[in-house]
Design brief:
Layout lengths: L1 H17 L2 H6 L1 E8 L12 E2 L1 H15 E14 L2 E12 L4 E14 L2 E9 L1 H8 L9
Parallel strand pairs: 1-6
Antiparallel strand pairs: 1-2, 3-4, 4-5, 5-6
């Protein structure tokens, strides 16, 4: 089942890259738990529960607030009922014009052929600088 889990997570990233949110949501469990990294701009509602909460709290905001935001997984690591994705975020925050290029690790938990949990780890300092929450060079 673990290779199927890797394939499922890869399908999520591919659908997201195409902008096909319905295809992404079709791969989420009805009770998905979505956890943004502490201090990430969209952690204010974390953990999000259910696909619609993820759309409203994360996906819609990414689309509205960023130009060219992309999630580029470089490696997917098979961990049985979990898949770890390592990659890079890229985008430009519209309100400030500041770009971000930050590494991420995502831990996906899978159940019955669906994504049941998502945990994000990333450099939140870069995002805070891009959105203007802290000055560049400052430490949060």
């Amino acid at each position: 089942m673990s290779q199927q889990n890797v394939t499922l997570v890869q399908s999520i990233y591919e659908a997201f890259a195409r902008g096909d949110v319905p295809a992404v949501l079709a791969l989420f469990a009805d009770d998905i738990e979505w956890i943004e990294a502490d201090h990430f701009p969209y952690a204010d509602g974390s953990p999000y529960r259910g696909p619609q909460a993820v759309v409203n709290g994360v996906f819609a905001r990414l689309g509205a607030e960023w130009d060219g935001f992309s999630v580029q997984p470089k490696e997917l690591l098979d961990a049985g009922d979990r898949v770890v994705a390592l990659g890079t975020y890229r985008g430009t925050y519209k309100a400030t014009g500041k770009p971000v290029q930050a590494q991420f690790a995502h831990v996906w938990s899978l159940r019955a052929g669906k994504a049941a949990k998502f945990q994000q780890y990333t450099d939140t300092q870069q995002f805070a600088q891009a959105v203007g929450a802290v000055a560049e060079g400052a430490h949060a």
